[in-house]
Amino acid sequence: MGTQRIRVWDLPTRLFHWGLAILVVASIISGKIGGNLIDWHGKFGLAILGLLTFRIIWGLVGSTYARFASFFPTPGRIRAYFRGEWKEPGHNPLGALSVFALLGLLALQVATGLPGNDDIAFRGPLFDLVGKALSDRMTGIHKLSINLLFALIALHVAAIMFYARVRKDNLVKPMITGWKEHPQGRPATGGSIVALVIALTLAATAVHGASGAWLPAP
Q1: String of b and e for 22-43 (b: at least 16 CB within 10 Å)?
Q2: How many Cβ atoms are within 10 Å of 135's Cβ, its own excluded?
Q3: Are 123 and 131 contacting, i.e. CB atoms less than 8 angstroms apart?
Q4: Cα–Cα distance for residue pair 110/57, rounded to 1 Å
Q5: Beta strand pairing status for 4-7 and 179-182?
Q6: What is the number of alpha carbons within 13 Å of residue 148 lying toward its C-beta?
Q7: Helix/strand/coil (H, E, C) string of 119-145?
């Protein structure tokens, strides 16, 4: 069957993907090293919150294959995938499960990190809203859930390698160029400038709110 070159991933989606990957790596490294880097760990967390907020909004108003509705892993779509009937060029249902799991776990990391503390010199920007006892509990969740994040990242990378080597489907290249060879998919449409401005504005608002800049000085 012949293929055609179609636009799959818009630029905002691609920038989100690689930006998030860089920030997650930076957060892991700074969190593990600690010390003077712990302040940067907090800043990386705020940046991740901004990206997650952007992706949620973009999943509603972005281009075709960036929208959650196009790849939400319903039981019917999962059955179609295992039957070999899934033909869409965007995320397949199993990949979609991985995407939602990663986004959800990163949201948990951010939510538990913002009010967290390290019992030494670092307090998250929202520490004063919850108090020391609740902050300690949330910090514990933050530290424990990182192990699950490692597992999901490893699974994500393994899936990409499997598709490249076994299925002969390079998932990385389209996320770099935005284009993919596909036998019958339609090019992505939508994702206007207005939608982009709305998504960026809401993301910036979320970062400002989470930064605690609006809280009264102690």
Answers
A1: ebbebbbebbeeeeeeeeebbe
A2: 22
A3: no
A4: 17
A5: antiparallel
A6: 15
A7: CCCCECCCHHHHHHHHHHHHHHHHHHH
Instruction: With residue 180 as reference, give the H or E element that holds it.
Output: strand 179-182
pLDDT tens digits for range 47-106: 999 999 999 999 999 999 999 999 999 999 999 999 999 888 999 999 999 999 999 999
The overall longest dimension of the chain from CA atoms, in Å, is: 67
Contact assessment for residue 101 and residue 153, using Cβ atoms and an 8 Å cutoff: no
Coil, helix or strand at residue 164: helix
Q: Tokens representing 28?
A: 């892991």
Which residues have CB under 8 Å from 169's CB, separation 6+? 163
Pick from 140, 147, 54, 149: nearest CA to 105: 149
In angstroms, the CA 106 to CA 52 distance is 8
